[in-house]
Amino acid sequence: MSATERLRRIAVLVSVGKHRVSAASCYSRNDALALEIGRRLARAHDAALDVLHAGDAADPALQDYLALGAERIEVLECREGDDASEALARRLRGTSLVLTGTRAEGAYDSGMLPYRLAAELGYALIDSALDITVESQRATITQFMPKGVRRRVQAALPAVVAVHPQASAQPRYAYARIPDGAIVPEAKPARRDIEAAEWRVAPAQRKPIKLVAAEKRSGHARMLMATTTESRGGNVVIEGTSVEKAQVILDYLREHRLVDY
């Protein structure tokens, strides 16, 4: 792309998220930030904005993106086990700037789609973007780094940019936009992902959390405990009924604020 050519086309990839409480399908908060940044850049550069989703066109969560400002959502048919990155890359060739979230919100989403898509297209990839500006066919990105550090990087277009959940954008939800928008399914199916068969999917198992009483002893007392061989155990209750023994345990838990009743 020449340095004098303006930014003509921007694409935003959106996914289906999960409500934090009900687990119902809804828009992804991260992708909503990417959409708002894409809308802002499209207005600033008078560029066309394409909003794409790989999945089921009948999913009601897509209407949320219409309420967030997407005028038209193009849905590429993609079932479980299909290669979404290949289908998206086939559609996005020639697009100057592709915006995505860092990862979808499903239980088994790996966060690898931006990387696979950039590899398919041969584009540069910048992740954890907080803010994006485009000038002279170069994108300047403020990038999120650990421990509150920020870094400014530049990349020549075309590029894929993954937007961080703390990006500087404020999406506005309006029901009145939904009737004016359109969800357009694309009939061409995606090919099967040959690597998907190698993955083993299993339900996550929550490990029990061990309750530990807060340490109240001074540093000197802890040093003595570490250097002596005397018993470090608690009280051993031998006599009494089961109710009395249970009361001793409950008193201990309350004393160390391990329970709140």
Instruction: List the strand order in the largest sheet.
Output: 9-8-7-10-6-1-4-5-11
Number of domains: 2
The end-to-end distance, rounded to whole angstroms, is 66 Å
Helix-strand pattern: EEEHEHEHEHEEEEEHH
Helix content: 10-25%
What's the quaternary structure here? single chain
CATH topology of the largest domain: Rossmann fold
Largest sheet: 9 strands, mixed
CATH class of the largest domain: Alpha Beta
CATH superfamily of the largest domain: HUPs
Helix/strand class: alpha/beta
The CATH architecture of the largest domain can be given as 3-Layer(aba) Sandwich
**Backbone shape:** elongated
Mean pLDDT: 84
As a whole number of angstroms, the C-alpha radius of gyration is 26 Å
Number of helices: 6
Number of strands: 11
Poorly predicted segments = none
Q: How much of the polypeptide forms β-strand, as a percent range? A: 25-35%
